[in-house]
Amino acid sequence: MSKPALLSLHQALRKSFQSLENNQKIWSSVLADCSPLMVSLGNLAEQSRALSNVQISNTPLRDFPDLEEGLRFKLLQATDTVLVKLNEKMSSLQSVRDSISNQVSAVLQLYEQNTDSLDLLTVTERSATAPSLSDMLEWLQDAERHYRQQFLRRKTLLQTLRADDLSLLEAAPKRWKSLESPNAEDRITDTLCKVSFFIESQ
Amino acid sequence: MEGQSGDVIVTPANRKCSAVTGSARKIKDNAADWHNLMMRWDKLNEEGFNVAGNIVNIKLTRSQSDQLLLVDESSSSSSAGLQQGGGAELQDECCKLQDVINKMVAVVTKMERLMTSQRGIRDLEEFQFGPEGRKFPLFLTWNTKHFEEASRVLLDSFRQELRLKQSILQELAHTATSDLCMVYLSCWLHQPFTPPHTRLTLEALLLETGHRPL
Description:
The complex is a heterodimer.
Chain A: H1 3-53, H2 67-113, H3 120-124, H4 133-160, H5 166-178, H6 182-194, H7 196-200
Helix pairs in contact in A: 1-2, 1-4, 1-5, 2-4, 4-5, 4-6
Chain B: H1 2-9, H2 12-19, H3 22-71, H4 76-129, H5 144-172, H6 178-190, H7 196-208
C-alpha cells in the first residue's frame, strides 16, 4: 500500500540530489569568479586611501590642479564597475539558492502528503546501497540551510559596502573570505558520496 | 571570370564608402586614425603600467633593505652588493619607461597633426562656402566645426595625460613614501584626464562618420 508513495518519494529524492550536485558546482564556480573581483575592490580602496593620505599640493603633482578630483572620480567609477559585477554574481548565487530551496521544499511537501502511508519502519529503514528516507531528507535540509545562510551573509556584506566608506571597502576582501565555510561544503560533498549508489540505482 | 567574381564582392556599403571624396574622405580617415591612435595609447599605457609597477617594487624593497642596513651594520657588504644590483635594475626599468613615454609622445604628435588637418578642412570649407560653412552636413548632422571641436577635446585630454606621465617618469624612482608611489601608479593606470566624456566623443565621431553602424 505504501509502495507507490515510497517509489515516488525515492524518485523525487534522486532528482533533488542530482540538482544539488549540479548546483554545488555552479555555486563554487561563481564564488571563484568573485574572488578576483573582491581583490580588485580591496586594491581600489587602497589606492583611494593613498590618495587621501597624500597632500597633492606638497608633491611634484601640484602642477595639475584638477588631478585629485579627476583621479578620485576615476577610482569611484572603477569601484562602481566592480560592485556592479559583484551584484551580477550575487544574482547567480541567488538563483542557485532558489533552485535548491525549491527542490528541497517540493520533496518535503511530497513526504508530508504521504506521511499516513509511510510508517516509522519504512522511513528509517536503510540498505547497503540506500540511506534511510529520514537521513536523506535531513541532509537535503542541511544543504538547503547552508546555501540560504551563505547567500544571506554574502549579500548583507555587499549591501553594507559604500563607495565612500574606505574602511569598509578595505576590510571587505577579508570579511568575504571569512565567510567561507569549507566544513559545510565538505559535508555536502560527503552527502553526495553517500547517496551516489542510491542516485545510480534504477 | 576572376575579374567578374571580384566585382561581385563590392557591396553597396563598399561602393558608398569608395564614393566618399574630398573633405568627407579626409574627415572619415581622420576619425579612423583617432580610433587607432587611442588604441595604441591604451596598449602603451598598459605596457608602461607594468614597468612603473616594477620600478615601485624595486624601490620599496630597496628602502626596506636600507632600513635593515641601519639595524644591522655587520652585514653591510652583502647588502651593498644587493643594492647595486637593485640600482642597475632600477635604471633599466626607468629606461624602459622612458621608451614607452617616447612612443606616447609620437602618438600625441600624430594627434596634433590630425588636429591641424581638421582645422585645415574647416578653413577650406569657410573659403568655399563662406563663414557659415556648407549648408548640408557631410555625413549625418555634424558640421565641420563639430569635427574640429571633437578633435580638440580628444587632443586636450591626451596632451594633459602625456604631461602627467612625463612628471610621473621624473619622480617615480625618487619617491620614498609608499602612499605617493601608489598615487603615481593609480594616476598612470586610471588616467584622470581622460574622463568618460573622451571615449564618448570618440564613439560619437565614429558614429557620425559611419565607422560604427547606426
